[in-house]
Amino acid sequence: MIEQTIANWHDHLRGKFEGGLDALLHDDCVFYSPVVFTPQRGKEITKMYLNAAGATLGGDEPRPGAQAGSGDEKKGFRYTKEVLAGNQAILEFETEMGGKYINGVDIITCDDDGKIVEFKVMVRPLQAINLLHQQMARMLEKMKG
Amino acid sequence: MIEQTIANWHDHLRGKFEGGLDALLHDDCVFYSPVVFTPQRGKEITKMYLNAAGATLGGDEPRPGAQAGSGDEKKGFRYTKEVLAGNQAILEFETEMGGKYINGVDIITCDDDGKIVEFKVMVRPLQAINLLHQQMARMLEKMKG
Q1: SS3 state of residue B94
Q2: What are phi and psi for residue B113, nearest 5 degrees?
Q3: B104 touching A, CB under 8 A?
C-alpha cells in the first residue's frame, strides 16, 4: 500500500513530484530526529526538518534544498535497501559528509490515503550522529533566520 | 522468506530456540554496531556483540545474557514495529536504560537457508547512543575479561 507513496518520495527527491512535500505529508505528520528525543509535530516543522536534512545529507540524488555545485562535501546520497510492507516503509541510506561515512534509515508510515503521517530517521555510527547534529543545527538556524 | 528466521529470533530472545545464536547465525555473519564504523566479522564476534546488547538493553522480554533480577535499569525492551520482505527484516524497538529512553532498529538479512548473514543496529536519540556506547564498552570488557 505504501509503494506509491515511496515512488512519489523518490520522484520528490529528484524534484519531479508536483506538489512536493505539501502533497506528500499529512497535516499532522510527526518527525522524529536521530538526535533529539522530542517528536516534532505538524507538516510545517516536518518540512523544515526534511529540507534541512536534504540540504545537509544530499548528494548524487540531491534531496530538495541541497545546493547545486556545493561540491565534494555533499556527494553520494543513495538508498541501499528498501523494505516495504502494509503502510510501513524502511529505507536504508548511505552518504558522506566532509569525507565521513553516514549510514541511516528513513522509517516512514503512511495513512490509508498514502499521506505520510510519521517520518523517523536514525543514523550510525556515533561519529556520523555528532557531525549531523552540528550540521543540522547550523542549517536549521539558517533556515529560520 | 525471512519470516521463519524472525520467529526463531523471537523464540531465541525468550530462551526457547534450541541451538540459540549458533543455530541462527551464519558462520560469516557480519555485525554493524550503532556506535562503531568498522564491521565486526564472523559468528563468534557477532554472538559476543548480540549477547552484550542483550545484557545491556534487555528487559521485559530479556535478550539472552540479561541478568534476572537486575531491576529497574533494564526494564521494558519491546519490539514496536516489524517490516519483513524477501530476505530482509527491520524490527524497531524501544527500551529504557537508567530511566533514559532508547529507540532503535535491528536490520537483519538472511540467506536462502534462513541463516542470519548481517545484523545491523541503529539507535536514537543522541543521548541514547552515548549511553549505549558507555554501557556496551563496559559489558564487552566484562565478557572478554
Answers
A1: strand
A2: -90, 5
A3: yes
Whether the CB-CB separation of B7 and B91 falls below 8 Å is answered with: no
Average pLDDT of chain B to the nearest whole number: 88
- pTM comes to 0.87
Interface of A with B in 31-70 (CB under 8 A): 32-37
Binary contact (A85, B83; C-beta < 8 A): yes
B105 with A84: Cβ contact below 8 A:
no
pLDDT per residue over B38-67, tens digit each?
999 999 999 999 998 888 887 544 455 555
Count structural domains, chain A: 1
Q: Which one, of B76, B54, B73, B75, lies nearest residue B65 by Cα?
A: B54
Interface mutation target, options A30, A122, A131, A136, chain B, most CBs of B under 10 Å: A122
C-beta separation of A4 from A113 below 8 A? no
CATH for B104? 3.10.450.50
**Which cell numbers in the block locate residue A41?**
509535530
Q: What is the DSSP string of A117-133?
A: EEEEEEEESHHHHHHHH
Tens-digit pLDDT profile for residues A9-23: 999 999 999 999 999
Range of the domain at A79: 3-144
Please report the ipTM that was assigned to this predicted complex: 0.86
B137 touches chain A (CB under 8 A): no
